[in-house]
C-alpha cells in the first residue's frame, strides 16, 4: 500500500469518527463540521450517507424537551373565581348597609306612615300577590287596594299597581302655565313621576277595568275593558301580570272615543271610585317606598346565592 493511499484512509477514518460524535450531540444549534485537509467541508462534500446522519442529528436535537416541573401552586383560575365572588358579595353587602342605614328596612318615613294611616281608613291595602307580605320573592312589588265602602250603585271597587310601573310625569302645558316662571319648581318637576294603575268596578260577577295613569297634577284613563269575575279574582289576575296582551277583547281605542265620554270616565274614577288627590299621592309615595324595600330584599337574596 502506498503512503499516499494510507494517508487518505486515515483521513477518511478521522472524518467518520467526527461525524459520529456530532450525531450524538444535544443542544439548541447542531452543526456538523467535517474537517479534512485543514479546511472546513460541508455535509454535501462527504456524500449522501453523511448528510442523512447530520440531518438525523439535527432532528434529534430539536426533539429535546425540558422536564416538566410540578409545583404546589393553586390554579390561577380558581383564585380568580373566588376573588370575583368575594368582590361581588362585598359590594352587595356594602350597598345593603348603605340603604338600611339611610332608611331602616320595614320602617316607613313619617310622612308615608301618616298618609298610609289616612288611606287605610277607607281602603284595605294588600302588599303582595297572595296577600299581606306575599311569600314569593319579589311579590311585595305588587299592591292591591280594596275600598271598604261600596260605590253608590253597590259596586265593589279595587285598585292594583306595581311599584316599578312608573314613568316620568310630563306636565301638560296650557295658557296658565306657559309663561309662568318655573325656576322654583324646576328640580321638582324633573324628578316628578307618574304611576300606572288599574281600577276595578265589580257587580254581579262582572268587572269593568279602567287602566289609568296619574302624576302629580292630573289623572288620565288609557283603556277600559269589561270581563267576567269579581273584584278579588280580577285584581289577582292583574297583579299576576295579565295586561293588554291577554286573549280577551281589550276595549276600543280610547283616544278614538268621544271627548266628553273620555272626560266622563276620568270623572267617574275620581268621584265614584274615590281615586282622589290623597289616594293618588299615596300610590306615588307607596310605590317609591315598596320599590326601595324590594331593592334591599333583592340584594339580600342575591348575596345569599352568589357570595
From TrEMBL:
Pfam families xrefs: MAM33
Listed GO CC annotations: mitochondrial matrix
Name of the protein: Mitochondrial glycoprotein domain-containing protein
Organism listed in the record: Thalassiosira oceanica (Marine diatom)
Amino acid at each position: 500500500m502506498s503512503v499516499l493511499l494510507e494517508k487518505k484512509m486515515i483521513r477518511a477514518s478521522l472524518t467518520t469518527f467526527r461525524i459520529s460524535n456530532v450525531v450524538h450531540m444535544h443542544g439548541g444549534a447542531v452543526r456538523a463540521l467535517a474537517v479534512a485537509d485543514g479546511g472546513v467541508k460541508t455535509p454535501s462534500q462527504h456524500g449522501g450517507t453523511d448528510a442523512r446522519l447530520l440531518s438525523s442529528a439535527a432532528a434529534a436535537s430539536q426533539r429535546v424537551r425540558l422536564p416538566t416541573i410540578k409545583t404546589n401552586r393553586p390554579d390561577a383560575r380558581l383564585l380568580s373565581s373566588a376573588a370575583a365572588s368575594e368582590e361581588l358579595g362585598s359590594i352587595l353587602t356594602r350597598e345593603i348597609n348603605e340603604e338600611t342605614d339611610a332608611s331602616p328596612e320595614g320602617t316607613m318615613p313619617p310622612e308615608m306612615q301618616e298618609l298610609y294611616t289616612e288611606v287605610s281608613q277607607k281602603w284595605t291595602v294588600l302588599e303582595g300577590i297572595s296577600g299581606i307580605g306575599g311569600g314569593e320573592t319579589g311579590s311585595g312589588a305588587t299592591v292591591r287596594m280594596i275600598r271598604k265602602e261600596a260605590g253608590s250603585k253597590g259596586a265593589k271597587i279595587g285598585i292594583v299597581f306595581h311599584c316599578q310601573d312608573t314613568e316620568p310625569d310630563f306636565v301638560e302645558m296650557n295658557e296658565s302655565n306657559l309663561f309662568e316662571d318655573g325656576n322654583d319648581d324646576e328640580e321638582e318637576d324633573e324628578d316628578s313621576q307618574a304611576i300606572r294603575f288599574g281600577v276595578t268596578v265589580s257587580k254581579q260577577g262582572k268587572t269593568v277595568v279602567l287602566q289609568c295613569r296619574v302624576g302629580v297634577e292630573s289623572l288620565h284613563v288609557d283603556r277600559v275593558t269589561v270581563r267576567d269575575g269579581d273584584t278579588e279574582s280580577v285584581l289577582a289576575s292583574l297583579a299576576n301580570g295579565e295586561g293588554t296582551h291577554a286573549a280577551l277583547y281589550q276595549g276600543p281605542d280610547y283616544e278614538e272615543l268621544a271627548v266628553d265620554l273620555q272626560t266622563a270616565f276620568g270623572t267617574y274614577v275620581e268621584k265614584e271610585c274615590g281615586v282622589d288627590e290623597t289616594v293618588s299621592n299615596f300610590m306615588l309615595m307607596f310605590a317609591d317606598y315598596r320599590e326601595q324595600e324590594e331593592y334591599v330584599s333583592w340584594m339580600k337574596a342575591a348575596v345569599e346565592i352568589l357570595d
